[in-house]
Design brief:
Elements lengths: L7 H22 L15 H9 L3 H17 L3 H32 L3 H14 L5
Amino acid sequence: ELERGLSPAVREILEVDREKHMAAEVLRRGVRSADVVLVCRAAREPGLRQLLSGSDGDSAAFAADGARAAGKDASRVWPFLLVLVYVLVPGYGSLLLAWRASRWVAGLLPGTRELTAAVGAAEAAAPSPS
């Protein structure tokens, strides 16, 4: 809606900047040897192809800048941290809470203290295996 009220020159500047931003994000976030899907309007396709292919001098320099930025910003530790934070930590925390709750409930049952004391006394009275 906003683009309809803009002059053709301003629209062209905005669209070129948008193409550059999209191409920079593809280069920054893309993974080698993986397919990338980019959704855009048909009018933007030639510009994006040119920026991503690096066929002329300007787009080649742009692709080199994007590759340098991708190498600098990208890190292989993020997938591991995401698995750690979203899967392992909550799973371990749930097991710990369940164990603590079961110990608390077992302590509330009648006769638990006497049983624990009897087991402790039997272990103390048993001869050591040495």
